[in-house]
Each structure stands twice: as structure tokens, then as C-alpha cells.
Amino acid sequence: MIEIKDIAKTYRKNGGREVKVLQGVSLKIEKGEYVAIMAPSGMGKSTLMNVIGCLDRPTTGEYRLDGVEVEKMDDDSLSEVRNKKIGFVFQSFHLLPRTTALENVQLPLIYSFAERDMAALATAALEEVGLGDRMNHLSSELSGGQQQRVAIARALVNDPSILLADEPTGNLDTAASAEVMEIFNKLHKAGRTIIMVTHSEEIAQQAGRIVRMRDGKIVSDERRAQ
Amino acid sequence: MKPAKTIKLALRAMGMNKMRTFLMMLGIIIGITTLTVIVSVGKGASAKVMKTVKNFGTNSVMVFAGGGKVLGPPDEKTNTLTLEDAQAIMQEVHGIRSMDTALLRLGRTVKYEDNNTNTVIYGGTTNYGDAWEWSTESGDYFTEEDMAGMARVAVVGKTVVSELYGNTDPIGTNIKIENVNFRVVGVLAPRGTSPMGMDMDSRIVIPYTTASHRVFNTTYISLIRMAAADPNQVERIEREVATVLRERHHIQSGFPDDFRVRGASSVSKMAKGMAGTLNLFLGLVSLISLVVGGIVVMNIMLISVGERVKEIGLRRAVGAKKTDVRNQFLIESSLITVIGGLIGVLTGIDLAVLLPILSNGKMAAIPSWEPFVLGFVFSALVGVIAGLHPAKKAAELDPVDALKG
Fold first, then answer.
1. Which of A179, A185, B66, B399 holds its CA 20 to 30 A away from the CA of A224?
2. Does B105 or B16 have the greater pLDDT score?
3. How many helices (H) and strands (E) would you count in chain A?
4. Class of domain A32-43+78-223
């Protein structure tokens, strides 16, 4: 479902120096896979993540998502793809302040035009991450682990094809990390496609496939028997 | 995103920072309040002008003896206007339906029994009622015989009646004007205030011949009052009357008139002039407030966009299009200014109601629906213009950079 062919991404830094963040990355990810992308900081894993998530465009190369050539899409179509097919989970949660868990989870729904019961969908998503009893709490009233679970519910609420998680446990203590990883495992078992960027070996080991990157290139791609 | 959702979102953002929202509204509130006051005062003033002109007579032209820019009737030393002037006007200027010539004296003592008061003595002709379009409330005007016989008969105004008689019927009583006895034959219908601000009901009308020979001993006249057959001809008559008089008085071109011609149009011009100055000042205040208010809205919106970069990044990540983000900020800024505008209109209407009371009726203001439309249009316009730049800036943020903050 994800087909990346020879993707390169070049940034021009202040002063005109070009930085090649991705240098010819090719990657195929099938539906239902649980992939961890590992790399030391600044080695292009976040950029790859943003390209897969249609937040960023590659400088060169091809990207097909569900058979559609994403690199040719305009900005509005990319927004629509993000809305319908991608669910983001960020290291720093990115919840709206002074807003309840329920409203945070509804956020993607207000940008899709379909007539649906937003509250019911958001409630179901929150129940899926075990926060059915915290729906009307403000984000500031929740613990870090709970906030990240709200963020996961938000990523799930529009029933996307792919969950993209960027260091989802980076800001969490061990217990909360375990909780969050438990949810990802559960979602994987339920058939979700999950792509997770991490630099923690321990976290990566829970995925079925580990892609290692260095200097903007893939250096290894191993599948583990589960 | 649906408009209703966007408005809800904007209301929420406004509620989160109430002080800031209020500051953004302040300039708009002041601007729209003054705008509302301008419209109301303007309406009040034009109603007042209309009333003044109507009171003066929409088809009336008056000539006063003496030049200059003085308002109202001349003093008694001004001897520039004669009955012959009036006759010449009547012969040479067409379209005059009726003419009254008068000898006028201000502030004369009149007595009835033990009461006395000061009033205007108007020595006019039997054309008085027609030329002034002024009827008697009771009794009648004097007759041609009274004129011919220099009869000592008087028609009194309502103010004179109330000051001298109280509730007594004045008809048939004797009244002393400058120590000459007059018999009251009629009471004038009430007329109100003249365009020059004089109480028109404070006057006594007596035959010109009597005034000229028995009371004031002069043959000069103070004013000519004309009624045009057609109100549209008033301006032409004003011009032609001036030409006739300049010719008769041998006034060389470049020298000022020794008379003043006043028609309905010059009266309305005069009345409008007074209201115009105030409106110009208030208009400037309104304009400046709206511009300053708009700049404040724009700056605070820019700050707000800066503070909400992460939120914008997140919204873009979950599927908001550029237009969604742009609309969110545009609607937020317009909603703030429109609500500010509504507060402004309501404040302005309150002021419009209070103004005549506070100024003891000197200032007229009429509340109306127009400020609501104007206020809405102007405040929405300011909101959209002020929000355009911040909204565009928010929409053009790169989602990846925005997420990083």
C-alpha cells in the first residue's frame, strides 16, 4: 500500500548550504505491517515520516499511497489524504490546550465533510484506548500517558489506513510507555498498519519489521518472525 | 470545514482570551459608536432643517433692510428699504403670489391692565396672512378699511397672549403699545421658532399705516415677505429680487448689498451648515478609530497566529486545508469586529437617545435602522481587511515547520 521509490529530500539551509536529508530511499510497506524506522537523531527518519504522512514532499522520487501518485497532488488533495488515510501520533502529543479529550479527538472529523455523528465516533475511539471515563477532562488534567492515548484516539477516529507515530514514547516514563506500546500492539493485532519512528531499540523490538537508516539511506531492513 | 463549525471555533478562541478580545474590539466599538451617533445626529439635524424650512415656508422669500451677515430683522436705524422697492419687485419679478411689506420694531413694551411684556411690533398689510401663510386662531386680521383709516387694531401672537392674559380671552380687550391704545381683533395661530432662533409667536401685528404714522413715525420698511406661486421658483425669485434692488439702490458691482434676501434654500443651507461642522468632526473620529482599531486587530491577530503555530501545524496534519486555516482566522477577526460593531451601534443608539435630553433639546438625534447596516458593513470590512494578512500568514505556514513550533 505504501510504495516509495528512490526518494531524495534536499534542504537548503540558511547560507545556501544544501543538506541532503534523504538520499535515494526505497521502501514498500504492506497493509497490516508494524514497522519501526530507526536512526540516530538527524539522520532523516522524521523527514521520511513526514513524506510518508504527506506533510512534506520529496525533492525527487516517487511515492504511491494505495496506488495513487502522491507527489503529483496539490496541497488541498494532500490535506484530504492526511485527513482520511493518515493518523499522526507525535512525541509531544499536540493536544489543543483548554479543550476536552472528546473535542480533541473530534478534530480530524471537523475537516471531513461527511455527515457523521462526531461525538459517537470520538467516544468510540476514546473507549478503544481505554479513556472512556476521561472524555470530558481537559487535556491539562490528564497525565502524559493519558494525553498520548487521547492523541492515539484522535489518530484513529477517522479510521485511517496508516498510523504514523513519531517517537510516541519519547516524552513518557516507563510505565506510560508500556501502556502506550500495549495499545499499539493491540491495534496491530486488530489489523492496523503502523509505522513508528524511534531511536529506542527496546521499542523497535516490538515491531514486526525494523528499518534502520543512516545518513539519509536505508542500511538494513529486517523482518522478525512474530 | 463547515461555516457553523468555524464560527464556533472562533467564538471559542475569543472566549479563551477575553481581555485581548476586548482590546481588539475597543477601537471598533468607538468607531462604530461615533458612526451611529453621526447617522442619528445627521438624521436629527436634517429633520430639524426640514422643520425649520417648513416653518419658514418652503415657497417663501424675505428681504431685510440693511446688508451684512446679520440674521433676522434689522435695527430701526437701517433706512434702506422702501415701499417703492417693494412695488418695483412686484412689477419686475414674476411668480410672486403674495407680498407683505412691514415696518418692524423689536423689544417694545406692551401693556394689558397691570401686565406688561416686551415683544415685536409688526406693522404689516392685509396680505399678512397670505404672504406668511399664517392663519388666526381666533378673531380675524384687520381690514383694508383699518389700513386706510390707520385704525388702532392689533392681532397678537400666542406668546404675547400667554404673557399678558393668562387664560383670559384677549379679543375685544384694549392693549397699550408704546402708550397708544389698540383693540385686539385677532390671535395668531402658534408658529414656533424662526430659522434665526426667534420666538415667532412673540409678536403683535398692526396695520402698516398705523405703525408708520401713529406709532413709529417713519416711512421706511424693515422687510418684505413674499410667497412664490411655485416653490421651485424660489431661487430664481431670490436672484431677481437682488438684481432689482441693486439696480434701484445704485449699487456698483463689487460693492456689497444694502439688503439681505433669504429664501427657503438659503435658510436650509444656513441650518445645514451648523450640523455639518459637528458631523465632519465626528466623521473624522469614527474614521480614525476604525483605522486604529483595524491596526490593533491585525497586530493582535498576528501575535495570536504566532502563539498558535503548533495548533495550526496540528490542524494541517489532521487534514485542514490552507483555506480552512485562512477562514478560521478571517472569521475570528471579522467576528470580533462585527460583535464590536454591534456593541458600538447599541452604544451609539443609546447616546442618540440621550443626546437631545442632555443638550436640553439643542441637539436633535433620531435613532434608526441605518446604523445597524452601516455598522455591520464597516465592522465586517475592517475585520476582513485586518484579518487578511494574519490569516494568510497562518495558512501559508509549512505544516512540518509549524508542528515543530
1. A179
2. B105
3. 7, 10
4. alpha beta
- Of the partner residues B311, B314, B316, the one whose CB lies closest to the CB of residue A79: B316
Last-in-domain residue among B195, B229, B263: B229
Whether residue B139 contacts residue B205, with contact meaning beta carbons closer than 8 Å, is answered with no
A56 lies within 8 A of chain B by CB: yes
Q: Is residue B143 part of a domain?
A: yes
Structural domain harbouring B80:
60-229
Q: Are B225 and B158 in a shared domain? A: yes
Distance CA(B317)–CA(A82), nearest Å, equals 6
Q: Which phi and psi (to 5°) does residue B194 adopt? A: -80, 165
Contacts of B308 in chain A (CB under 8 A): none
Distance CA A204, CA A223 (A): 12
Q: Are A5 and A26 in contact (CB under 8 A)?
A: yes
| Whether B224 and B117 share a structural domain | yes
DSSP symbol at A98: T
Residue B210 resides in a domain? yes
**One-letter amino acid for residue B325 of the chain:** V
Gyration radius from chain B CA atoms: 33
Q: Quick one: B386 and B317 in the same domain?
A: yes
Considering B204, B229, B254, which residue would you say is the last residue of a domain? B229
- Closest residue in A to B323 (Cα–Cα): A76
Q: Are residues B192 and B209 in the same domain?
A: yes
User: ∠ CA B171-B177-B179 to the nearest 5 degrees?
Assistant: 125
Give the end-to-end CA distance of chain B in Å, rounded to a whole number. Answer: 24
Mean pLDDT of the region B228-238: 89
Q: Which three cell numbers stand for residue B336?
A: 470580533
Q: Strand, helix or coil at B107? A: strand
ipTM associated with this complex: 0.94
At A110-152, the pLDDT tens digits run: 898 777 788 999 999 999 999 999 999 999 999 999 999 999 9
Same domain membership, residue B89 and residue B215: yes
Q: How far apart (Å, rounded) are the C-alpha atoms in residues B325 and B403?
A: 14
β-bridge mates for residue B155, sequence order: B186, B205
What pLDDT is recorded for position B193?
Answer: 79
Q: Which residues contact B66 (CB under 8 A, 6 or more apart)?
A: B74, B75, B78, B80, B258, B259, B260
Q: Tell me whether residue B234 is in a domain.
A: no
Q: Residue B239 domain-assigned?
A: no
* Minimal C-alpha gap between B351 and chain A (Å): 39
Residues B146 and B86 in one domain: yes
- Please, are residues A173 and A193 in contact by the beta-carbon 8 Å criterion? no
Least CB-CB distance to B321: which of A76, A94, A154? A76
Break chain A into its structural domains and give their ranges. 32-43+78-223
Instruction: Decide if A124 touches B, using CB distance below 8 A.
Output: no
How far is A121 from A106, CA to CA, in rounded Å?
A: 8
Neighbours of B337 (CB within 10 A): 33
Whether residue B67 is found in the same domain as residue B43:
no
Contacts of A76 in chain B (CB under 8 A): 321-323
How long is chain B? Answer: 405
Same domain, B65 and B213: yes
Domain count, chain B: 2
Nearest-10 Cα torsion for B286, B289, B291, B295: -160
